[in-house]
C-alpha cells in the first residue's frame, strides 16, 4: 500500500526567496549604472576581472552594463514568478551562475576560511568548554600558548599584524569589484533556489516522488556526502604538500616557496579537508546530534539550519565556480585544475547531500512511500 502527502504550498522561505530576488534585481540598477557611467573605474573594470566568456572587442563597452540594467528590470518583474515561468528564473541562474562568474569569489572564500582557522583555534575550544571554570581554564591555557609562541619567536605577531593590515588594505582597494562578484554569485544562488521552489510548486497536490522519501534520501544522501568528501581531498592534499620538501601544484615546485606561502598552504589545506569532513556530517549521526567531545552541547540535537544554510551556500558557490575554474585552467594550460578543483562534481554532490539532510530533518516537505 502506498500513501502520499502533497508538497506544501508557498512557505515563508518561498516568500523570503522572492523578496531576495527582488532586492538583488534592484541592486542591478545602480551596479549597471556605475559601470555605464564610469567604465574605467566601475566594478567590472578591475584588473582581476576575467569573465568566463569575454565579449568580442567589436561590441561597444556600454552593451554589458546596459544588459545588466535590463536584467535587473526583468528580475523585478519576475521575482514573484508563477510556476509556469520557471524557465526564466532558471535562465537567470544559469547566466549569472555559470557565465558571468569569475574565480575571484572562491579564491576570496578560500583565503578567508584559511585566515579564520587560527581565530577558530583560539575561540572554539573556549566555547566548547562546559561550565564557567572550564572555560576560564581553557582560555588561560590558550592565552599562555599564544604568549609563549610570541616570546619564543615561533610566531612574529608584528609581522602577522602587518600582513593583516596589508590584506585589509588590499580588500578595501578592491571592495567595489569584490562586492560585484559576491552579488553575482548570490544572485545565481537566489535564482536557483527560486527555480527549485517553483518546480516543486508545480507538483503541488501530486504524489511526491519516492526518491524524496526520508528513508530513500538517507541512502542517496550518504553516497552524495562521501562523494563531496572525496572531492575535497585533491585540493587539500596538494596544498598540504607545500609543507613537505616536494611541494606540488600543477607540477613540482622545488624550493620556490617561502615560509609564508607554505603556511598559507597549510591553512588552505586544513580548510579544504575540514570542509570535506563537514560534508560527511550531513549523513552521519554527529550531524544530527552534537558529538561527545563538544562538551557544552554534547548529545543535544543540532539545529538543522546550522548545517543546511552553509551547506547550500557552499554547494551553490562550488557549482557556479566549475565553469570559470575550468575555463581559467584551459586558457592557462593548467589542466590539473580540472582534477585538483573538482567543483563540477563537488558542488552538485554537496547540494544533493544537503538536500537529503534537509529531507531527513523535516525541512523539506515529502511523502512517505510504504
UniProtKB/TrEMBL annotation:
Transmembrane parts of this sequence: 16-37, 57-78, 85-103, 109-128, 140-165, 177-200, 220-243, 263-283, 304-323, 343-360
Keywords: Membrane, Transmembrane, Transmembrane helix
Protein name: Uncharacterized protein
Natural source organism: Glycomyces luteolus
Source lineage: Bacteria, Bacillati, Actinomycetota, Actinomycetes, Glycomycetales
